[in-house]
Design brief:
The complex is a heterodimer of chains A (about 230) and B (about 750).
Chain A: E1 4-8, H1 15-26, E2 31-34, E3 45-48, H2 69-78, E4 82-86, H3 88-95, E5 102-104, E6 112-120, E7 136-143, E8 147-149, H4 152-160, E9 164-169, E10 181-185, E11 191-194, H5 212-218, H6 221-226
Parallel strand pairs in A: 1-2, 1-3, 3-4, 4-11
Antiparallel strand pairs in A: 5-8, 6-7, 6-9, 9-10, 10-11
Chain B: H1 11-16, H2 21-31, H3 37-47, H4 49-52, H5 57-60, E1 70-72, E2 79-82, E3 87-95, H6 97-102, H7 104-121, E4 125-135, H8 143-161, E5 165-172, E6 181-191, E7 206-211, H9 221-224, H10 245-261, E8 264-269, H11 274-285, E9 289-293, H12 306-311, E10 317-322, H13 327-336, E11 340-348, E12 352-357, E13 360-366, H14 367-372, H15 401-409, H16 418-421, E14 432-434, E15 441-444, E16 452-458, H17 461-466, H18 468-484, E17 489-498, H19 505-525, E18 529-535, E19 539-540, E20 543-544, E21 548-557, E22 574-578, H20 589-593, H21 607-622, E23 626-631, H22 636-648, E24 651-654, H23 661-666, E25 673-677, H24 679-692, E26 696-703, E27 706-709, E28 713-716, H25 717-731, H26 734-741
Parallel strand pairs in B: 4-5, 9-12, 17-18, 24-27
Antiparallel strand pairs in B: 1-2, 2-3, 3-6, 4-6, 7-10, 7-11, 8-10, 9-11, 12-13, 14-15, 15-16, 16-21, 17-21, 19-20, 22-25, 22-26, 23-25, 24-26, 27-28
Helix pairs in contact in B: 7-8, 7-10, 8-10, 10-13, 18-19, 18-21
The chains are: A alpha/beta (about 230), B alpha+beta (about 750).
Chain lengths: ~230, ~750
């Protein structure tokens, strides 16, 4: 059984969605960590959920990235533990330097909540193993600062190393992200940051289940199914 | 008794507090001496229209407020309704009109914050929000700025707090040019035995302040909300509060943790008139006095006076009475969430509201009288005039029906509101099942395998203007219909009554007649009013808004797998109209958009027929007959069919028996629905309709890609969508912005 820890900050607000998703997909409740914790429980997957940590009153994720718990997250990442940051979690991971680039204000300057189409740009990773390479999936977004940007050198490295996990496709880029980037891996492939919310599309009541396979992959449940 | 005063009480000061002569002499009697400056502020805050409902109370009492499922009706922070399995839904709607006109972003944001606080103060976690917005003419210089500010303020607060916005209304009319309406609705879920109310119990218990610090923002806000606007409006900007959704989110989590710990005896949020109103309410309800020491109040500005502290409307603050033995546990919870926590007073047995500041007593007033003895007026009113019925042949037909339909679905009041709702988080919490754009927002009940709640907000102000009584009925009936159309049993409603100056008999007449209509409809349709808000003095330079009694309704879906949607039909399904051919064009969107007039009577609402057809449609949805359902409202039959086609990305071919084509297609007769039925069952469905004595007609079939109605309408769904989707982004300059970005 895979152990999941969800890291909470004041102002996290898609934490309950993430807890529900993990519980429904894996059958086991995740452990919760608070931003002031200095260590994490033994985990196979650590998730930073969406929200407005500390109100996003500085840059989105900037204050959260400096919380005591983030040292423990960095250490876990260095040990190869899978780390997933969704939305504010992605912003926090870039602010913490665990992922390259930055999430700027949406090109249209307004908050955007809608369904987009994602192209699976790299299915050769545990997080994306449930998808076919170049498969197009549905996924909702809900953010104000999702406009991914990186300097040309960083961008080239991301592309050359196949670190782009998901791209907005079919004209649905909702925020102006460079190269239509919706989610990226770190160089070692164990840290994934993405703006869209797979946790909001995991069961028939959500109107679709395209997000479910991401968690099944991250929790090694795909192999289990095949075995 | 000596109570310190700092400011001489002059007649000008009294007038500037919105207190008239009779009211002041009553204040003298109850105070038993001349009030101090602080006391005058307190009386004014408690007795203004916004807090005391002094003009409307007499009439509000006539609304039906009881029902088998009602746990708490009006009088608490929000209404509480039983939905079975020990769960309750807690909801209310409230206006933030004046602040939103002055400072649209913060005005709307704090409106959302206030209504969310009303809900979680009762122990409920907010699960859904809606907003009913009325703006001035799109051509008016301020409208675009107000739309942009209000929408982003609502999103800015609700998205950060983390509540899905699942429905609402946006309308435009020149009568809102100088006074827009922002009515915010919120609903929460709680366990029936874990509801908290404001009534304090026990003498000598600590009164605890928590949440954000107190500043000078909003001082006198409730008094502002009880006055007409004039050209000096910009001077009022400093009375608008500033919202902090992050603190509110922390306050929510802290309050729910604190309630779960068992430490809370009573709780009241600080909304209008802040510390004054919340403290008086807790004391007066519990037959207790309250003694406050303002030196303990957490402040964010220096040298605040007692007057300012008592009248500040700083947001995100709560007042509680806690079990003294649990003070440490309580304090730990608030420290965890980094919120201010201070013991600012205690409950007493002397029924006095006593305020101390810097070693002196600055106010000492009878607490019951502050709360309960507010003046109640029976203001003079005149019965609204009536209009004679107008037959369809008195209205000109359009030159071309296709052009007319495209114009209607692309008009400001009927076009897609996607530009608005895509700025709201509609999905957060993972329970949203129907998003804005359908008949009602639907959110499943977390933790229950099959239940869901439906929410709809409705009123047609142009009908209320024509006939306040029928318009009041229609607002309730349309809300009922929207809930039914999803497969929800309507349970109860909240009302947000927005009117002009009640001191004018014709405005008071609108209020009286529409409350009568609302009461009649709520009674007939089984939707008691469990909470609400009245916003009067919505006038600028003597021009009143359209009378706008917004109804926010809540319905219960027992099995969400059988829920109906506007666009869930399949090609080949049979299309049925429940109801009869349209005849009523007066006050219709057709009359306004095509003929350029707004005259004549509002459509009549036959409540018995409304109920019979509603129950029939609900039964059909629940027995899984209907593949899609939509009510027929603004714009009539053709608009309803077009909306279904656009939602489904499918066409329809309809062949309808018609007397007058323009009224059949665009008439706004009430109590009507469109249902699509799998063709195999169409015969049986028709037989059932016949058997139930419900008027119906099989009018066509779902097809691939064109909406065709007789030889009148033939438009591709793509063209319908283009017309429907373009107005809002074009109006807001979005199209130009997007082109510039590319």
């Amino acid at each position: 059984m895979q152990r999941t820890t969800i890291v909470l900050f004041p102002g996290s607000n898609r934490d309950r969605d993430m807890i529900a998703a993990i519980t429904k997909v894996s059958g086991a409740s995740p452990t919760l960590a608070w931003h002031t914790d200095t260590s994490l429980p033994e985990s196979d997957l650590v998730i930073i959920p969406g929200g407005f940590s500390h109100g996003d009153y500085l840059r989105s994720g900037a204050i959260a990235a400096r919380a005591p718990v983030m040292k423990a997250v960095s250490q876990a990442a260095a040990k190869g533990v899978r780390i997933l940051g969704v939305c504010n979690g992605f912003q926090t991971l870039t602010e913490a330097g665990l992922l390259p680039g930055a999430l700027m204000r949406n090109a249209r300057l307004t908050f955007v909540c809608k369904e987009v189409k994602l192209l699976v740009a790299n299915a050769g990773n545990a997080f994306t193993a449930g998808y076919r390479e170049s498969e197009v999936i549905r996924c909702p977004v809900a953010h104000h600062d999702g406009n991914y940007f990186a300097d040309p050198k960083t961008l080239k490295a991301l592309e050359d190393n196949n670190q782009v996990a998901f791209r907005y496709t079919e004209g649905t880029n909702p925020n102006g992200s460079i190269n239509d980037i919706a989610g990226i891996f770190n160089i070692n492939g164990n840290v994934l940051g993405m703006m869209p919310h797979p946790e909001n599309l995991i069961e028939p009541a959500h109107g679709g289940q395209d997000g479910r396979r991401l968690f099944e992959g991250a929790l090694n449940m795909l192999e289990t199914e095949q075995a | 008794m000596t109570v310190t005063n700092t400011h001489p009480i002059t007649s000008e000061l009294i007038v500037s507090h919105g207190i008239n002569e009779q009211e002041y002499s009553r204040i003298l009697e109850l105070t038993e001496r001349e009030p101090t400056y602080t006391e005058l502020g307190i009386w004014s805050a408690m007795w203004n229209e916004h807090c005391s409902y002094k003009s409307s109370k007499k009439w509000l009492k006539t609304l039906p407020t009881e029902g088998a499922r009602v746990v708490y009706g009006p009088g608490e922070n929000a209404g509480v309704v039983d939905i079975g399995d020990d769960d309750v839904v807690v909801f209310k709607m409230e206006s933030h009109n004046h602040p939103s006109f002055i400072e649209p972003y913060q005005g709307a944001a704090t409106g959302v914050g206030g209504i969310l606080r009303d809900v979680f103060t009762m122990g409920a976690r907010p699960i859904a929000a809606m907003n009913a917005l009325r703006f001035g003419d799109p051509g008016h210089a301020k409208t675009r700025h107000l739309v942009a500010g209000v929408v982003s303020g609502i999103g800015g607060y609700g998205n950060s707090f983390g509540v899905p916005t699942v429905g609402g209304e946006v309308n435009f009319h020149s009568r809102y040019n100088g006074n827009i309406l922002v009515n915010a609705f919120a609903a929460g879920l709680a366990k029936r035995d874990a509801i908290y109310i404001s009534k304090a119990e026990g003498v000598g218990l600590p009164v605890v302040y928590l949440g954000a610090k107190t500043g000078r923002d909003g001082v006198g806000g409730a008094t502002m909300a009880s006055a007409e606007f004039d050209d000096s409006i910009d001077e009022k900007r400093p009375t608008v509060q500033v919202g902090d959704p992050f603190t509110e989110k922390c306050l929510l989590e802290a309050c729910l943790e604190l309630m779960a710990s068992g430490a809370v005896i009573a709780i009241q949020d600080m909304g209008a008139a802040g510390l004054t109103c919340s403290a008086v309410e807790m004391g007066a309800r519990g037959d207790l006095g309250i003694r406050l020491n303002l030196d303990e109040v957490p402040v964010r500005e220096e040298n605040m006076t007692a007057y300012e502290m008592m009248l500040s409307e700083s947001q995100e603050r709560m007042l509680m009475v806690l079990r003294p033995e649990m003070e440490d546990e309580a304090k730990a919870i608030f420290t965890k969430w980094d919120l201010d926590f201070a013991i600012v007073g205690l409950t007493t047995d002397d029924l006095r509201f006593s305020i101390h500041h810097q070693g002196e007593e600055v106010a000492n007033l009878p607490i019951k009288q502050l709360g309960d003895e507010a003046p109640e007026y029976d203001r003079p009113w005149v019965e609204p005039g009536s209009h004679s019925q107008q037959e369809p042949h008195l209205f000109a037909p359009p030159h071309d029906f296709n052009t007319a339909l495209l114009k209607l679905i692309g008009s400001p009041d009927l076009c897609s509101r996607r530009w608005v709702w895509e700025q709201y988080d509609t999905l957060i919490q993972g329970n949203s099942m129907q998003l804005p754009g359908g008949d009602a927002g639907v959110v499943r009940v977390d933790g229950h395998p099959s239940k869901a709640l439906a929410f709809s907000s409705d009123v047609t102000p142009r009908y209320v203007e024509a006939d306040p009584f029928e318009g009041g009925k229609q607002a309730v009936a349309e809300c009922y219909r929207n809930l039914i159309a999803t497969g929800a049993e309507p349970l109860a409603a909240t009302d947000n009554l927005n009117f002009g100056n009640p001191e004018k008999p014709e405005i008071m007449g609108q209020l009286v007649a529409s409350i009568r209509g609302i009461a009649e409809a709520c009674q007939a349709l089984g939707m008691p009013i469990v909470s609400g808000n009245v916003s009067l003095y919505n006038e600028t330079n003597g021009q009143a808004i359209l009378p706008t009694p917004t109804i926010g309704g809540v319905g219960l879906i027992d099995e969400h797998e059988r829920m109906a949607r506007v666009g869930s039909m399949q090609a080949g399904d049979a299309v049925f109209l429940i109801g009869t051919e349209g005849t009523h064009l007066a006050r219709s969107i057709y009359q306004r958009e095509i003929l350029g007039e707004e005259t004549g009577p509002a459509p009549q609402v036959d409540l018995l027929m409304e109920k019979a057809r509603g129950e029939f449609v609900l039964a059909a949805i629940r027995s899984d007959y209907a593949s899609a359902v939509h009510d027929v409202s603004d714009g009539g039959l053709a608009v309803a069919l077009a909306e279904m086609c656009m939602a489904a990305d499918l066409g329809m071919k309809c062949d309808i028996d018609i007397t007058y084509p323009h009224s059949a297609l665009f008439g706004e007769d009430q109590a009507r629905y469109i249902m699509t039925i799998n063709s195999e069952w169409a015969g049986m469905f028709a037989a059932n309709s016949e058997g139930a004595g419900v008027s119906f007609a099989q009018i066509g079939q779902v097809t691939d890609e064109r909406l065709i109605i007789n030889d009148l309408i033939d438009i591709s769904v793509g063209d319908l969508k283009t017309a429907h989707e373009s107005w809002f982004p074009d109006f807001m300059g979005e199209t130009a912005l997007a082109e510039a970005a590319e």
